[in-house]
Amino acid sequence: MAAAEAAAARRAPDICPLCERPIPPDAKSSRHHLTPRLKGGTHKGTVRLHQICHSAIHARFSETELAKRLADVESLRSDPELAEFIAWVKTKPPGFHAPTRMTKGRRTARKDRT
User: Fold this and answer.
1) Residues 50, 28 contacting (CB under 8 angstroms)
2) Which residues sit opposite 46 in a β-bridge?
3) Coiled-coil stretches, from where to where (predicted)?
C-alpha cells in the first residue's frame, strides 16, 4: 500500500506555493530562488512556480528588494501588490499563462537609474 501511495504522490501535480494552484506537467513553470542568485542565493532554497507567478514577482520587485524583505513565500504572499495579483490568478485554470509586463513603477525606477 505504501508503494501505491508513493506512486500516486509522484503523479500528482506540484502545487505552486504562491497561488496554491496545481502546476500541470505541461504548464509553463520555473524555479524561483528565494534569495536572488545575484544576492548570494545560488545555493539557497528554490521553489517551483507557475511561470506567470514567477514573472509577476520579477516584474514588481528588484533583486535587492527580494533579498531584503521578500526572501520567503509568506513574505511574497503577504505583499499587498502581489496579493492583488494572486487573487486574480487564482481565478484562472492551473495551466493558464499570459505575458507579464514590468510594472509602471519599476519601469520608471529603471529609467531614473540610467
Assistant:
1) yes
2) 33
3) none
> From the CB of residue 30, how many other CB atoms can be counted at a distance below 10 Å?
13
Q: Helices 80-89 and 51-60 sit at what angle, rounded to 10 degrees?
A: 160
Residue 75 to residues 64, 72, 94, 96: CA-CA distances in angstroms? 14, 6, 23, 24
Question: Residue holding cell 506512486?
Answer: 7
State the pTM of this model.
0.78
The pLDDT tens digits of the residues spanning 21-71 come to 999 999 999 999 998 888 876 778 899 999 999 999 999 999 999 999 999
Pairing of strands 29-33, 46-50: antiparallel
